[in-house]
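Translate sequence into structure tokens.
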Amino acid sequence: MNLYCIPYAGCSARVYDAWRQYLPDGVTLVPLELPGRGSRCVDEPVDELAPLLADLRRQVDPDTPYVLFGHSYGALIAFELAKRLRADGAPEPVALLVSASRAPRLLGADADTHLLTDAELTARLAALGGTPAELLENEELMEIYLPVIRADYRILGEYGTGTPGTVGCPVVALHGSADEEADRAAAEVWAEYTEGPFRTAEIQGDHFFLHSAERELVAAVAAVCTKGETR
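Result follows.
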């Protein structure tokens, strides 16, 4: 079973590296690195959905059983990737796990974020949390980082707010117990976007429980991969 993981906005797929020590035998972690960060830092960031999906599609082997996982912005991209695979006639994932993410029709609050000045965008990132202070305070690093996060926010900003179709696979929507951005009510709306089984699961923590409750999250993900816990 391959577990493909997509990071949140501005983040490298290296955020998932520690998962390997917690995942059971038979589950292979495959972090999907987006252009412009991590091992692909020399690549230009992609700020349009279609070419980003084409890039990710080339990294996925749908002929081997697989699960798709994405956190926050990464959840939306994972959903769109699942749709792309379905449209291609490829085998769908065993499950799609959307973590700390509002469903597509609830988006809209970030529509203009990519248009902010560098100073405004930096201030917004500081207010949201999740970005290390040492990065925000380092002008040289921010010159590299801002184009990456801006590209992600442009994709979010230009993403349609209407119902953009469905997937046929099971969907599990994970939400943080103290997440004010994507709470349980927001997670439950994801039920509208699958023709298969759906359930929610609560993880202790705020929007970035990916970091604060890593082992709890990985255990929930592993249960889906190994036991098919999608109901």
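Note: The mean pLDDT is 92.
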